[in-house]
Amino acid sequence: MLTDTNNELNALIAMGKGVRDMFGTAKGVSKEAFKEWRACSRQFLIEEFGQDNLFFQDFANKVNKATLVACNIGIGILLAVKRADAPPAPATEEEKEPVKEAAPPEQPPVVAKKTSKRGRSVATTQKPGAKLKKKRRHIKKR
Prior knowledge:
There is one protein chain. The mean pLDDT is 76. Strands 1-2 form a two-stranded antiparallel ribbon. With 142 residues, it is mainly alpha-helical. It is built from 4 helices and 2 strands. Strand 1 (110-115) and strand 2 (121-126) form a beta hairpin. It has helices at 3-21, 31-49, 54-62, 68-83, and strands spanning 110-115, 121-126.
């Protein structure tokens, strides 16, 4: 974002906070101040993003009446514009980066139960798809 644009956005955020602070005073909010802030903000969003942009559409639909909630929503949208630093979408399909496919999850080892020569149950584990190997035990003779 250019510095002029950033400065203008900071001014609009400060202006919105000034309008919001009027809600707690004895005089209450000035509808003219709210309308001026709303008009300036809408014009900024149109110039920067156009009328089809989600930021402008949200601002236009949700910031209509001079209420505290509408003022907070408007300030939030302007802050979101300030924090949005996503690069613009590529113009053509060739410029897009290919989506990497996730590797399939590793399958758990297969547990096979065998019985030993003495009749005891012995469990062995193997990787999926591998042939079951026999485990040999070397018994020392005394």
